[in-house]
Every structure is written in structure tokens, then in C-alpha cells.
Design goal:
Blueprint lengths: L1 E9 L3 H8 L14 E5 L4 E5 L5 E10 L4 E8 L4 E13 L2 E15 L4 H24 L1
Antiparallel strand pairs: 1-7, 2-3, 3-4, 4-5, 5-6, 6-7
Length: 139
């Protein structure tokens, strides 16, 4: 199983960051390449569309409001992986009220691509996503 993780310090309180990213259906609020999210099954599943119109369906598998993290599994997507599970975590930065560390990580099995190709793919997606989060918070 392959994995990758990216983290960024963003200029906002953990409460503010979690209020933006903590909703399972909230990706369009901060992730420009996911302009559409439709909640299904009472909000436990989301059907996303990316800017190319491709559909990605994901299931919420863990959610912790107190610790500010959630995990999800891909049910269907145009990615060369299977067994994909990802987690978004929001951490306090000791001594800094208006700084928060956001970590986006995932593990997956390559399927039709090399391990390095899929690690590079998701590292890029997570890095671009956290850069977009930073831009949303500073806009």
C-alpha cells in the first residue's frame, strides 16, 4: 500500500479553519477544482464533480468534531488506485492563536499505474488543495 501526506500552516485559528474544511460536503467552499458537491445517504456520501466534469464519489468513514478530523474512502473516481482512504486533520500550532496546521494524507493501492505515479498524483492534489485553502483564508 502506498501513502503520502502534505501539511501546511495557514493564517487562521483552528476553529475558523475547521468551520471551513470540516463539513464533508464543503469542498467547493475552498477547493476550486471541485466546484460541485452533492450530499447523498444523509450526508455520509458525497458526489463531486471536478472542473473537467469527472465524477468522484466518496464515503465518510470517520468523523471527529472534537479532534477536528475526518476520513473518507473513494467509491468511484477516475484515479488509478483502489483501496483509497484519506484523512484531513486540523491541528493547533502551540503559541499561535491565528495559525493552524492542516494535514491531508492518504493511503491507496496503485491500479494501472506505478506506486510513484500515484504518490506523485495525490501529493500534488493535496499540496494544490492546501495552497487553495491558504488562498481562501487570506482572500
Amino acid at each position: 500500500m502506498a501513502s503520502t501526506s502534505v501539511s501546511r500552516i495557514v493564517p487562521a485559528s483552528p476553529e475558523k479553519v475547521w468551520s471551513l474544511v470540516g463539513g464533508f460536503d464543503a469542498l467547493p467552499d475552498w477547493l476550486p477544482y471541485i466546484p460541485e458537491s452533492t450530499p447523498l445517504e444523509g450526508g455520509r456520501v458525497r458526489r463531486l464533480k471536478n472542473t473537467e466534469g469527472e465524477v468522484i464519489t466518496e464515503r465518510l468513514v470517520d468523523f471527529n468534531e472534537t479532534e477536528r478530523h475526518y476520513s473518507y474512502a473513494i467509491l468511484q473516481a477516475p484515479f488509478p488506485v483502489n483501496g483509497y482512504v484519506s484523512t484531513i486533520r486540523v491541528h493547533t500550532v502551540p503559541g499561535q492563536e491565528n495559525a493552524t496546521e492542516v494535514q491531508w494524507s492518504g493511503r491507496f493501492n496503485p491500479d494501472g499505474a506505478t506506486e510513484q505515479e500515484v504518490v506523485d498524483l495525490f501529493t500534488g492534489i493535496y499540496a494544490d488543495g492546501l495552497d487553495a485553502l491558504h488562498q481562501t483564508l487570506t482572500a
